[in-house]
Write the structure tokens for this entry.
Amino acid sequence: MTMRRCVQALVVAILLFLVTPVLVVIPMAFSSSAFLEFPPPGWTTEWFAEFFRDPDWIDALTLSLRVAGGAMVLSLTVGTAAAYALVRRGVRFRGATQGFLTLPIVMPTIVYAVGAYLVALKLGLVGSELLLMCAHAVLALPFVLLNVTASLQTIDQRLELVAQSMGARPWTAFRSVTLPLIAPALIASALIAVVISLDETVVALFLTEDTRPTLPVKVYNSIRYDLNAVVPAAAAVVLAGTVAIAAALGLVRWVIARATGMRAGAPAGDGVEIGAGEPETGGAR
Amino acid sequence: MSLQSSAVRSEAMRQPATADANRGAIGLEQVAKSFKGAVAVDVVDIDIRPGEFVTLLGESGCGKTTTLLLIAGFHAPTSGRVTLDGRDVTRLPPYERNLGMVFQNYALFPHMTVEENIAYPLKRRKLGRGEIAAKVARSLELVGLAGYGKRHPRELSGGQQQRVAVARATVFDPPALLMDEPLSALDRKLRQSLQDEIRQIHRQLGTTVVYVTHDQDEALAMSDRIALMRGGRIEQIGSPTDVYRRPRTLFAAAFLGDANLLRGRVVSSAGGTAVVELRSGTRVGALADPEIAAGREVTVVVRPEHLRPADASAPGGAAVRATVEDVTYLGRSICCTGSFESGDRCIVPIETSGATEFPRVGDTLHLSWEASLATLVADVDDHDGR
Ligand SMILES: Nc1ncnc2c1ncn2[C@@H]1O[C@H](COP(=O)(O)OP(=O)(O)OP(=O)(O)O)[C@@H](O)[C@H]1O
Ligand SMILES: [Mg+2]
């Protein structure tokens, strides 16, 4: 076989591997059988109805959403502040600091989970929503940091200086100049943080109480202990939620890009003549 | 920040162009700045009058930008005092100094339209919408960009972007405008037309301008006064003619334009004219300097355009002989370079108009100059002049 054929085969294999689980779960969510048979003997939306009727599933879902929201806000705030300090201020041991903050990428989650559990146990904080938020924020932090750092590095430092010379206090200068310019990176980071938290299972398994699990933890417990037919529906809900959030944030990002004229690959427009009321050739392409 | 000081601040920022005699005055008193022990500005003393156009000129790394940022308040001086409008502002943060700033790379806000960029300082001053719109329109007019307000900076050429930067830095009527190499990213032709525009805006608004450049021609063309900087100090400050014609050091003489530098010793200094004996033994004249007594080793600075072909015996200075080593044709003139009998480098421009015969390599020229146009400098460059 040629090299090209090999690569093609590999791509197909990877796609199958990625897609097959999804292709199994979604039909199962609509299966009329209560015994997780594949292929499904018939179709129904009963399991979704049951999912949304059952207060336990709803509690798990809302807990997951709250934790994801909190983790997003926390990691975004801390990550942006850290990135700003690393890029703009003379931070000592810059390399070491950045390395330390991005450690969660390479650290085995199970190690982190056990450690967090032991600390939580000592402090009597097992089951604390806030603690779980913080733990998820830590897991998301590296991605926020890398994204925002890369974005800040493309922005001319003098913009804030010029803003200050025109009367803007440092915070105002940051808010009115730097923040809008890094907004696309912030949105991407927010998305990553939410997705990381929404389906994070290992740490959540350790830090939640059995009676108040997050959605993925409840999915795991259900499939292990009662082989509940709602599980594929719950998984489908997680999937749909993730896709919806991604789409929503993508839309916001596109709207911002349009509003600020920061379209990638827009013409430089050197020496353009004044066109009386000529409309911007934006987006419509 | 206390309430009181922020009230004082908005008061200061809103103040219209009143008849305050000190408005626009800038002073640096014994200002020094070092970064972790590395000296960027050694000692600078400068007193800029209201409405004056002062250029900081010097080589890369001599401390021009640092000096400008000290005035703007982005650096705190290691020692010394900074005054604005006659008040001590050494401890005042940049956003309370009310100064316009323009950078080389324009530093326009890419996410705002031209109008929004120019409105930025007005919004910080909490002006009303109508007033902002009117001022922005007037400012766009001033820089010749009426009709461009709705564009984004990206959609403008470099020259247009720099005009927007100037509009934005002047729209709030600051008493002084600080510009750091604003034109150095532009090509030569555009640079010249923008030089004229900046001068015109300066005349029209009457603001003080502190202008940084490393381009001597730009400095000579634009400034009321030039502060020539070197190694974190001001080497010489004065009007362009003053600095050009009367350099006080070898560095100043060599930095601003071409110069013939002839080494010698002062023989006598009387009646406003000094007589200097060159290394070749020839005696030449120069404007006497009361601080340079007879017997001193000196350098005589003669600008190329002040050299004349010597007639039989020119009054005030004997002819100096020079050998032509290279001839460059420049169109309107030709430029001969070579060396004087004394060994010093020689550079002579010769007008081509009317002349039919030009010097050739190897020819000997007899040159002299009006003694009052030659300047004495107490430094001597001991390297051989080539
Ligand atoms: N923030 C800083 N930290 C450390 N050193 C600095 C800093 N700013 C300037 N310097 C040093 O101070 C000296 C003067 O710098 P400055 O930027 O004022 O030079 P300049 O005259 O503006 O040069 P150029 O024409 O290249 O812009 C340089 O040696 C520079 O390396
Ligand atoms: Mg500089």
